[in-house]
């Protein structure tokens, strides 16, 4: 739907901002077209390596939302689509960026990013799913690799250029567009035509995936139409529409394609509505104005699901330090839906703030029995244990979780804090090294490991682990340089 900014700019920089890149950049909504080419330029293994490198760059430079509840939701939604997609070669990772711009993007290795502003603008889960389905199709069709293949005969490609272009575009799409426009050449029209063809294919594949995943196939047309109406006369439309105009023909095509599938009017999704409420109350606006917003929703019954409006109000109360009001609402919501992790997460925060962490621990201990290593449960459980100085159990929970989820940034961050509090200096530096590694800062990670080695002189086994990890990180860095 809204072609990955990453896709477009990644190619643009990789081709030194040539004319072909312009069309790619003009494809913020582009979806991969059908075909199996792209392997001559980029193997699947190399694609995975580059994707991981890009993800580290994004963690280091962009305001990613490190919120286990929201990460859990967006990955559940994304994977409900992935399981019905064709050509899936690896696990997908979905993540959120705290940015009010309407945008979503995909890049190498099954990484799909969604800006928070896009979610809060969507009215239904099917509208949001239509955007994600579009981006998934970029990946499964290997659109970026195929695009690089088409340009490789005449242009040199560098990893550094690709990464820098991705970051430039994400930080400021307008800057990226200007850079591309400055290098337009006579091949621009052919490049645009190539892109438009991909877009048509992208829409078709995305809508088919939407329908096969039991979402409303009209979700894409609905969101297209909303965007067109809202920004038709805007002096400053969102970056997505600056790079990818939305002609009426595209909206009509989306509606027509959706008619090929059975109509599926769906009731409001609680998970989607809770996600919107959480984004607004925690990441947008001021607490007092959000309290007024959700109160008005409840008074006028302007909500899709009442519980979601109450949840938004409770979070807004908490942000405004009104913990008693927040507690009353959240305990009522959790009582009616005990295993809802949105409520569990928020209640944990309130209990800790009210010096009632033992209540949180009791709640999370029960959930941990039948939801072991769930990121919401494990991270909240460890945090609650940390607050009552149950350091050893908190460390065990985090270590068990990291065995299953070795790339979890939040877990390593909490573990670093925990070891620092315990004055376990060697372990603290080891954990901090993993935080740096996830940010792609390999030299700093190695420095942390070398520092940790000096504090582990009475633990020879741990020192061997440190040496092995240093070699692993150095090899990862060298492998990147060889790409």
From TrEMBL:
Residues that coordinate or bind Zn(2+): 134, 138, 199
UniProt keyword annotation of Transcription present: no
Parts forming coiled coils: none
Main location class: periplasm
Residue span(s) of domain Peptidase M48: 73-257
Signal peptide limits: 1-21
Entry function: Functions as both a chaperone and a metalloprotease. Maintains the integrity of the outer membrane by promoting either the assembly or the elimination of outer membrane proteins, depending on their folding state.
Subcellular localization(s) per the UniProt record: Periplasm
Record protein name field: Putative beta-barrel assembly-enhancing protease
Family the UniProt entry places it in: Belongs to the peptidase M48 family. BepA subfamily.
Names of required cofactors: Zn(2+)
Keywords: Hydrolase, Metal-binding, Metalloprotease, Periplasm, Protease, Signal, Zinc
UniProt-recorded Gene Ontology molecular function terms: metalloendopeptidase activity; zinc ion binding
Pfam families assigned: Peptidase_M48, TPR_19
CC cofactor note: Binds 1 zinc ion per subunit.
Main enzyme class: hydrolase
The UniProt record lists the keyword Cell membrane: no
Record-level GO BP terms: proteolysis involved in protein catabolic process
EC annotation from Swiss-Prot or TrEMBL: 3.4.-.-
GO CC terms in record: membrane; periplasmic space
PANTHER family in the cross-refs: METALLOENDOPEPTIDASE OMA1 (PTHR22726), METALLOENDOPEPTIDASE OMA1, MITOCHONDRIAL (PTHR22726:SF1)
UniProt-annotated catalytic positions: 135, 203 (proton donor)
């Amino acid at each position: 739907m809204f072609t990955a900014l990453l896709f477009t700019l990644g190619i643009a920089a990789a081709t030194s901002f040539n004319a072909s890149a312009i069309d790619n950049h003009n494809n913020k909504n582009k979806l991969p077209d059908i075909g199996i080419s792209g392997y001559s330029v980029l193997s699947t293994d190399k694609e995975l390596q580059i994707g991981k490198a890009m993800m580290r760059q994004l963690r280091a430079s962009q305001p990613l939302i490190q919120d286990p509840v929201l990460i859990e939701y967006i990955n559940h939604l994304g994977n409900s689509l992935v399981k019905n997609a064709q050509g899936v070669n690896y696990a997908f990772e979905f993540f959120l960026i705290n940015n009010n711009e309407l945008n979503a993007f995909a890049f190498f290795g099954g990484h799909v990013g969604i800006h928070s502003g896009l979610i809060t603008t969507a009215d239904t889960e099917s509208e949001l799913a239509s955007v994600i389905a579009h981006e998934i199709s970029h990946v499964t069709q290997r659109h970026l690799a195929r695009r690089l293949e088409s340009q490789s005969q005449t242009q040199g490609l560098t990893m550094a250029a690709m990464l820098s272009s991705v970051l430039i575009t994400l930080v400021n799409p307008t800057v990226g567009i200007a850079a591309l426009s400055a290098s337009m050449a006579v091949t621009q029209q052919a490049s645009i035509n190539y892109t438009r063809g991909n877009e048509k294919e992208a829409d078709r594949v995305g809508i088919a995936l939407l329908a096969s995943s039991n979402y409303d196939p009209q979700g894409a047309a609905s969101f297209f139409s909303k965007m067109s109406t809202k920004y038709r006369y805007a002096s400053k439309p969102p970056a997505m529409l600056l790079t990818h105009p939305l002609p009426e023909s595209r909206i009509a095509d989306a509606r027509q394609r959706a008619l090929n599938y059975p109509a599926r009017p769906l009731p409001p999704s609680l998970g989607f509505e809770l996600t919107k409420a959480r984004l607004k109350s925690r990441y947008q606006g001021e607490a007092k104005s959000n309290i007024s917003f959700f109160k008005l929703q409840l008074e006028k019954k302007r909500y899709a699901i009442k519980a979601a409006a109450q949840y938004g109000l409770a979070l807004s109360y908490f942000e405004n330090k009104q913990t008693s009001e927040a507690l009353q609402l959240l305990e009522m919501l959790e009582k009616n839906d005990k295993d809802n992790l949105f409520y569990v997460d928020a209640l944990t925060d309130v209990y800790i703030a009210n010096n009632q962490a033992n209540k949180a621990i009791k709640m999370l201990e029960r959930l941990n029995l039948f939801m072991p290593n769930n990121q919401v449960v494990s991270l909240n459980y460890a945090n609650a244990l940390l607050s009552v100085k149950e350091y050893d159990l908190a460390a065990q929970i985090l270590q068990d979780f990291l065995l299953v989820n070795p790339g979890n940034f939040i877990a390593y961050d909490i573990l670093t804090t925990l070891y620092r509090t315990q004055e376990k200096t060697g372990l603290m530096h080891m954990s901090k090294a993993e935080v740096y590694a996830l940010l792609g800062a390999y030299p700093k990670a190695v420095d942390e490991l070398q520092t940790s080695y000096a504090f582990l002189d009475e633990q020879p086994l741990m020192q061997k682990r440190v040496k092995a990890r240093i070699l692993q990180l150095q090899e990862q860095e060298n492998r990147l340089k060889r790409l």
